[in-house]
Amino acid sequence: MSNLEHSVIKFGTDGWRGIIAEDFTFDNVRLCALATAKYILKSSNDVRPLVVVGYDTRFASEAFARAVAGVMTENGIRVVISASTCATPALSYAVAARQASAGIMITASHNPAEWNGFKIKATNGSSASPETISTIEEIIADLSPGPKSNSTGFDKAVNSGLADITDINSYYLARLASMVDIKAIQKTPLKIAFDGMFGSGTGYLSELLKGGQLGVIEINAGPNPAFPGIRQPEPIGQNLLKLSSVVKDIGAAVGLATDGDADRLGIIDENGDFLNTLQVYALLALYFLEVRKERGAIVKTITSSQMLDRLGELYGVPVHEVPVGFKYVAPVMIEHDAMVGGEESGGYGYRGHIPERDGILSGLFFLDYMIKTGKTPSQLIESLYSKVGPHYYERKDLFFTPERKQEILKCVGKANPSCLAGCKVIRKDNIDGTRFMLDDRSWLLIRFSGTEPLLRIYAEASSPERVKQLIQEGKVITGL
Fold first, then answer.
1. 192 and 330 share a domain?
2. Structural domain of residue 309, as residue ranges?
3. pTM of the shown model
4. Best label site of 91, 162, 389, 446, fewest CB within 10 Å?
5. Contact 337/350 with Cβ under 8 angstroms?
6. Separation CA 39–CA 93 (nearest Å)
7. CATH number of the domain that 458 lies in?
8. Do 233 and 199 touch, CB atoms closer than 8 A?
9. pLDDT digit string (tens) for 113-159?
């Protein structure tokens, strides 16, 4: 058995993640796979259930994926496993397209290099529901230690035909080409810089957009599980300094970046400045409303921008707010046939595709927005602000020791300020963490990360100065 007691394997905001060789071991991954297999066999109506398995560029991800496939086939479940590393949205699309019972993606997304993870996808390609995850956790807790790791299960499955090694990326590329005007993008004489962050998003845009006048220059393109030069493959400003320099050096129209498994998008404008995720989501929503002339609900997590609420008012579309995590976004998207759904982490999903985040498709939509309007990213921001007013945002991540968590919760729980950063507090809620809404539509949120040992403080306001003041007052509230 590994160092981690299997009874405490807990899934966070998006899957189970652990330190490789410490708690993310072959034994524990096999336990997760066995519990998932038991859940599928009990709950699925399929006579011969099918699971699609994918993996990213992290250390031993392919070997972990093969271990998962071996467990599935040993339990009579057919498996399609990706022939190479793949983006999580490619895996999700394969699950939905094949109407599989479930999907398993081996990835720790944006976590640092020492982590890996186990994501479960529902039959429609979305993240597994909280109810599904809770049941699988209960099954894990009841299981005896699983078999020791070996490769014979997978090899036997391939030889017997129970496991099929398939190029799922080609089907995903075809899907992307059907979602956006690829030819219009190809024939535009622009330079695009793309940062794959050494992850599994590399190569998709270059393959899709080749053969035209558009030039795609890729950096950090080769798989490297150490993610050299960046703390973690998360497409946020501090991790995209190299991309910013490249954009300025080559005169690129825009810089695009995806995280380790390519379900999140980061954007650098033509001046080398980072566009925060709240700006990007508001721009993508405006693109659908103005350029594509679509109408429908907007779904956002509580960490997303009030700009979306303002767009909802201006264009007469409903805006639904949910806790953090796409597992909460997807069901509401489906229920309301939502036009778009997204979250502050940089993950956005779209009607007519899969109810899940897709960083590659989001990048294509952003390029299409630029080309259809003839505007640079900074000009798009100006156009957005002319409609909704200026909005600024910051997120501060704070490390804490586990023994301090209860102390922090107590401090935040008893906080009841009448005003923050000079504005009246009109509401305090606990939808996900603790949020303070102010009378000028600015807000402050304090919550624990569901994927890392971090306390996060978020703020949005009408000026950078007020954002910094809100963040500082949030730190005071936490006692850190």
1. yes
2. 180-388
3. 0.92
4. 389
5. no
6. 21
7. 3.30.310.50
8. yes
9. 999 999 999 999 999 999 999 999 999 999 866 555 455 678 888 88
